[in-house]
């Protein structure tokens, strides 16, 4: 697997930055966070991006650097205004310092800056930016999105949880996200998105029946 030194640096840094915030939001008795949502999200974006790279090709350096930088200014759930623009500006100054190939920096900066751009707004020649966009949004669909929704809940201690509430939230989350399915740039992403949504719908439907006792 392609794991250059600069990638290890980017991974370590995001683990540290996100871990410091996570331990405040999700404290546990052993001093480590009970959950690090942002780190898990970015790890999944990397898995989905590598999967997509294998199918559609692209510059691995550009995609992987963009994956690990894209949410740097959104270390957990709250994001400042224009977290994509902040990360892009920071990446432009930082990538030369860690030995990232100079000639590819502009592409990384562009992909990071555009990762939360409106659907279908990226031109066809922005292949790596499209790939990051798809990988980032794919992580919002499927069984993992239900698991994440529940795992982050201790961040909202005023919220009472019970099975009925989990069903309601899972339905709401699905209806908010499923509109994405047709907007992925690559056919392979659309297919994967449909597959994930189908499993998510089945899961929620069964959960809903079980909780209703029917
Ligand atoms: Fe983001
Ligand atoms: Fe993201």
Would you kindly provide a written description of the structure presented here, covering whatever features stand out?
- The chain is mainly alpha-helical and 214 residues long.
- It has 2 domains: 1-118, no CATH class; 140-214.
- The protein is 63% helix and 0% strand.
- The mean pLDDT is 96.
- One fe (ii) ion binds at residues 41, 45, 70-71, 136.
- One fe (ii) ion (FE2) is lined by residues 41, 45, 70-71, 136.
Roughly what percent helix? 55-70%
- How many domains? The number is 2
Report, as a whole number of angstroms, the end-to-end distance. 48 Å
How large is the share of residues in beta strands?
under 5%
Largest sheet: none
Structural class: mainly alpha
Rg for CA atoms: 18 Å
Unreliable spans: none
Give, in order, the helices and strands: HHHHHHHHH
Mean pLDDT: 96
């Amino acid at each position: 697997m392609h794991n250059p030194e600069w990638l290890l640096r980017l991974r370590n840094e995001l683990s540290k930055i996100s871990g410091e915030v996570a331990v405040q939001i999700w404290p546990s008795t052993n001093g480590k966070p009970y959950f690090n949502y942002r780190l898990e999200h970015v790890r999944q974006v990397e898995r989905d991006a590598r999967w997509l790279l294998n199918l559609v090709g692209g510059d691995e350096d550009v995609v992987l650097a963009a994956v690990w930088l894209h949410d740097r200014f959104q270390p957990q759930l709250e994001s400042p205004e224009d977290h994509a623009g902040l990360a892009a500006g920071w990446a432009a100054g930082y990538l030369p310092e860690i030995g990232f190939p100079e000639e590819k920096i502009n592409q990384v900066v562009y992909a990071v800056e555009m990762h939360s751009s409106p659907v279908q707004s990226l031109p066809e020649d922005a292949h790596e930016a499209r790939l990051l966009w798809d990988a980032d949004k794919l992580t919002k669909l499927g069984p993992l999105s239900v698991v994440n929704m529940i795992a982050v809940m201790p961040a909202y201690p005023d919220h009472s949880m019970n099975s009925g509430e989990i069903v309601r939230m899972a339905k709401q989350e699905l209806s908010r996200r499923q509109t994405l399915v047709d907007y992925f740039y690559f056919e392979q992403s659309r297919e994967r998105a449909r597959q994930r949504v189908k499993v998510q719908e089945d899961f929620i439907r069964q959960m809903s029946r079980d909780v209703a006792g029917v």
